[in-house]
Write a structure and sequence with these properties.
Blueprint: E1 6-10, H1 15-22, E2 30-34, H2 38-48, E3 56-59, E4 64-67, H3 69-78, H4 83-91, H5 93-104, E5 115-118, H6 121-133
Parallel strand pairs: 1-2
Antiparallel strand pairs: 1-3, 3-4, 4-5
Length: 143
């Protein structure tokens, strides 16, 4: 068993995504892994039968996968942000992602996956590898 019961799959090429992920650094048992990592790809394939390019937060204890707007809201809540911020981020997820990608010059648009999903049986089997390959929340984007 790994030290992480929850793992964030995020766009490792996006400076804002990495900075946002770092807000969870203080939470015990939460790790992060870039979307392009092989373990992240295997997990997403097991969960969705494809590899959506989307922010995904999985909590093995809750047996839930939060994706897109759902992940953004859950991350804000766990980071202790006020409900108003949680609602603004969740409701404006696509607009914020688009603006951030434009400003930072990162290519690609997130796939339209949103909400909260039960952890699929196949994904549950992949979670250990996902967590084992995750690291602590990033402090900054590295080249």
């Amino acid at each position: 068993m790994t030290e992480y019961h929850a793992v964030l799959v995020f766009d490792g090429d996006c400076p804002f995504c990495s900075a946002a992920a770092s807000a969870l650094r203080r939470l015990p048992g939460v790790g992060a892994i870039p979307w392009g990592n092989e373990a992240a790809q295997s997990f997403l394939e097991a969960q969705f039968k494809e590899t959506p390019f989307a922010l995904a937060f999985t909590d093995r204890k809750e047996e839930r996968v939060y994706v897109g707007r759902g992940a953004a809201r859950e991350l804000c809540e766990r980071a202790g942000m006020p409900v108003l911020i949680q609602d603004i981020v969740g409701e404006n997820y696509e607009s914020l992602a688009d603006a951030i990608r434009t400003v930072t010059g990162v290519d690609g648009d997130p796939d339209p996956y949103h909400g909260v999903y039960p952890l699929a049986d196949d994904a549950r089997e992949e979670f250990e590898s996902l967590a084992a390959n995750a690291g602590s929340m990033p402090l900054a984007v590295t080249d």
